[in-house]
Amino acid sequence: MTAFEIRKFSMREQLPENDDARLKNWPVVYALNGGKKIYVGETLSATSRIRQHQASESKRDMQLVRLLLHEHFNKSAALDLESHLIRWLAGDGKYEVINRNHGIVDADYHDRETYRDAFPEIFEALREAEIFERSIPEIENSDLFKLSPFKTLTPEQALAVEDLLRALRSSLESGAEPRSLVIQGDPGTGKTVVAVYLMKLLSDIATVTDEEIAEDLEGDSRFSEFFTPEFREALQDFTIGLVVPQQALRKSIQAVFTRTPQLSKDMVLAPFSLGKSDQHYSLLIVDETHRLNQRANQSSGLRNRDFGEINEKLFGNDSPLYTQLDWVRQKSDHQVLLLDAEQTVRPADLSRETIDGLVNEATTGGKHVTLASQLRLNAGDEYMPHIRRLLRGEERAPAPVGDYEFCMYSDASQMYARIRQLDAEYGLARMAAGYAWDWATKSEGAAYDFELDGVKFSWNSTDVDWVNSPNALEEVGSIHTLQGYDLNYAGVIIGPDLRYDPEAGQVYFDRSNYFDTKGKENNKKLGIQYTDDDILDYVQNIYRVLLTRGIKGTLIYVCDPHLRDFMARYIPQTERARRLPDRRDSSPIEVEYDVPAHDGSDGLTRSPESARR
Questions:
Q1: Strand 550-558, strand 405-409: pairing
Q2: Where is the GIY-YIG domain (predicted)?
């Protein structure tokens, strides 16, 4: 029997105090909506809180009140449901969520999982009431959900945000000289989450009214200490920008900011847009700082010209030593730099020396935060070091990955069939590969780019939001479409650009099978020639990123037979697979097979020579 009910009232009427005692003294979650806006809250006294909202200037456009009353809810369960509903609403996109994001919590409490078991049923009831348009899986697979500022921060992430806010507040109040704040962390530790959350939180602090503080801000909120008149005053005319070097990720964040109160897509900037702008920022937050460029041959002559003109504009001369990081510092008073040196994937990215210098400078100045806990992948904290050692040829033991689907395939067609099966069941299962084949389909009209085990594969047909594009399941994503994105499952092809020498016991780079021209180009501007060992670092970083995209699982196929043999010692092998039909099949076929020994060949069929990607 359903243990909850949803009651609907007009915002113009008083709640019937004598009708139900729970309206005056019971944990209640409620939603106010009017037009395209919605607000979610929780209270122990619905009559008092709704009366307060009815008198509020900020809620004057609200038309309907929905009260959710659950027979067994306590205060903690109500807070938990409130957080879930806010996050789901932000990801659904039907309404503009006007909540501040300071109150999103993920606190543990007695019997939490039992209470959470009821949340999907409550969600479906609200969906029937047309509060939601999409299902929970559809919402949670969307960029609106994944990149939303309405997130439940982990204690580690919350502590990082607190440290950054305190440092910023102290600098503003004391007039001290600003210094860069650095957040360092592996993939999956939540650097982008912190960046987006901080953008929203600072905007909320700057715009919150005294009425809203009295009405909505709980005294035990994690960030309530920052919602003060003094800090709000210090943030007036305080301009904030989020610099995102990768085009695909930047476009996705812009789409989220367009739908978020107090944020706008104009706050999300490309490095070149920042350099050309006449605006000076109080604070610039840089996501993926390691992907900022040093002076190098850019993707076009126009970009080479822009780089020089921006240097002239900002510094009065075009020294080859200026980087896009120098632009960020010149264009802002304060900086928050999020980085991971092991996610640099091209020689044009900031040098390792520059990144290490940033970390050392921040550590010395006491403005360095490390995010250590791996959050995104269900594989646990040992997965990341395991992947790092595998790619370096240094692993000597299997990784404990629990329920994470982590396995190695000897047949690419079987791995692709499994990815299609997982996509049908969970969504967001995609193929990915290192840049070990030409992009023939881009400029020659070829039917495919490379073939493995009878399957013809094509590279991603779009660079922007590829993971959600209509043809994504039929294509293979590269590092330039996947860095910064989450998948449920990733099928990663480690191409013949990465090989293993069994006699030397070393992984090495095969330049003849690496087709990212910019990924191996010497830097004539700075007089740097990149050896195979130099490029090996970038290629290992590329695979490290690709192998950490899958939240629920990562499947691996290795082209080089010697590298395959080495990795097979430390990655579980598939013994059985269920094969869904490929694009030519008319009916599903299920097969069971034992993993065969490889025949010593690469198993590769290459397309004709073609233009470089």
A1: parallel
A2: 25-97
Name residue 20's beta-bridge partners.
none
Domains assigned to the chain: 4-140 (no CATH), 155-371 (3.40.50), 383-606 (no CATH)
Name 135's bridge partners. none
325 CB-contact burial (10 Å; exposed 0-12 / middle 13-18 / buried 19+): buried
Is beta strand 181-185 parallel, antiparallel or unpaired with respect to 332-339?
parallel
Structural Rg of the chain based on CA atoms: 26
Least confident of 367-376, 497-506, 584-593: 584-593
| 3-state DSSP assignment of residue 365 | coil
209-266 residue pLDDT tens? 877 776 665 555 778 889 888 899 999 999 999 999 998 899 999 999 999 989 999 9
What is the full DSSP assignment across 178-202?
P--EEEEE-TTS-HHHHHHHHHHHH
**66, β-bridge pairs:** 8, 31
Q: Please give the structure tokens belonging to residue 186.
A: 């592996």
Q: How is residue 588 annotated by DSSP? A: -
- 565 three-class SS: helix
b or e along 225-235 (b: 16 or more beta carbons within 10 Å of the residue's beta carbon)? ebbeeebbebb
Quote the mean pLDDT of the chain.
Answer: 87
Q: Please tell me the distance from the alpha carbon of residue 90 to that of residue 92, in angstroms, as a whole number.
A: 6
pLDDT at 526 over 70: yes
Sequence length of the chain is 613
The helix-helix angle for 191-207 and 247-258 (nearest 10°) equals 30
Q: In sequence order, what are the beta bridge partners of 26?
A: none
Asked whether 72 and 226 are in contact (CB, 8 A), the reply is no
d(CA 10, CA 5): 17
Q: How far does Cα 380 stand from its chain's mean position?
A: 17
Q: Computed from CA positions of residues 556, 561, 562, 568, in that sequence, does the dihedral angle turn out positive or negative?
A: positive
- Kindly indicate the confidence band of residue 604, based on its pLDDT and cuts at 50, 70 and 90: very low
Give percent above pLDDT 70 in the chain.
91
- In this predicted model, what pLDDT tens digit does every residue of 287-318 receive, in sequence order? 999 999 999 988 888 989 999 999 999 999 99
* Residue 369: its H or E element: strand 368-371
Q: DSSP state, 430?
A: E
Sign of CA dihedral 456, 457, 461, 465: positive
Give the Cα separation of 319 and 312 in Å (integer): 9
Q: Say if strands 28-34 and 64-70 run parallel, antiparallel, or are unpaired.
A: antiparallel
Q: What is the dihedral of CA 280, 285, 291, 294, to 10 degrees?
A: 30
**pTM greater than 0.90:** no
